[in-house]
Inverse folding.
């Protein structure tokens, strides 16, 4: 009996993967708004009723694709961070940001799914939050390390933003100064703005040498958060 159950589980895993692969192909050709369970089933040679046993609705399939995309992006960022884990915070920050850009350039349609235009009629459930938070938590961890070791300069914050900054710090970055958390949120948004501008063509005929431009920009973002290069005498 266990052998039969194991074979069924493997078959379900394989079919689920095939459904998601075909759906990603549709994203590339038609965009997320036109994703169709019937079209996916047709391309796989399945009847629609069979596909519904794996994904009861288009939204369920979209959610699975979104979580996969966030997890893939998060894994790429975490892998890049591991390679420089012993470096000073600014170098770790830059490595994570460059990994985000590299993943987006390699997976443009999946990037568009999670950071492009919202899909009409679809609202992402809270089950997407843990995967979506992976890059942000990584950047928060880098800044927290710098703060705990005295390597963080608190950026200025207008008085009218203090209450909101304190709320954000309490919600997702307890222990960090509110000034830093407000700057982190802005830097996070600007990081994805930089990537999106490059990916979706807004830099065409404007920025040609994009890799060094991106690196310079994310270092500026790090400075805005309060990260600074570690002086050579402190690295010894």
């Amino acid at each position: 009996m266990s052998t039969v159950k194991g074979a069924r589980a493997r078959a379900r895993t394989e079919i689920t993967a095939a459904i998601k692969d075909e759906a990603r192909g549709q994203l590339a050709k038609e965009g997320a708004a036109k994703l169709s369970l019937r079209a996916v089933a047709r391309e796989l040679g399945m009847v629609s009723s069979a596909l519904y046993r794996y994904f009861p609705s288009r939204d369920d399939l979209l959610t699975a694709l979104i979580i996969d995309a966030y997890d893939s992006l998060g894994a790429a960022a975490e892998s890049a961070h591991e390679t420089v884990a012993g470096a000073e915070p600014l170098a770790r920050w830059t490595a994570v940001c460059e990994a985000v850009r590299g993943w987006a350039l390699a997976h443009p349609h999946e990037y568009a799914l999670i950071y492009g235009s919202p899909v009409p009629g679809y609202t992402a459930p809270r089950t997407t939050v843990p995967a979506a938070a992976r890059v942000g938590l990584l950047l928060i961890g880098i800044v927290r390390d710098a703060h705990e070791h005295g390597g963080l300069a608190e950026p200025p914050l207008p008085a009218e933003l203090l209450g909101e900054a304190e709320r954000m710090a309490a919600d997702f970055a307890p222990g960090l100064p509110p000034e830093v958390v407000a700057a982190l949120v802005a830097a996070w948004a600007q990081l994805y703005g930089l990537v999106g501008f490059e990916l979706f063509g807004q830099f065409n005929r404007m920025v040609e040498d994009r890799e060094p431009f991106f690196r310079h920009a994310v270092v500026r973002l790090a400075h805005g958060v309060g990260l600074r290069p570690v002086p050579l005498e402190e690295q010894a």
Observations:
- The chain has a mean pLDDT of 91.
- The longest helix spans residues 2-30.
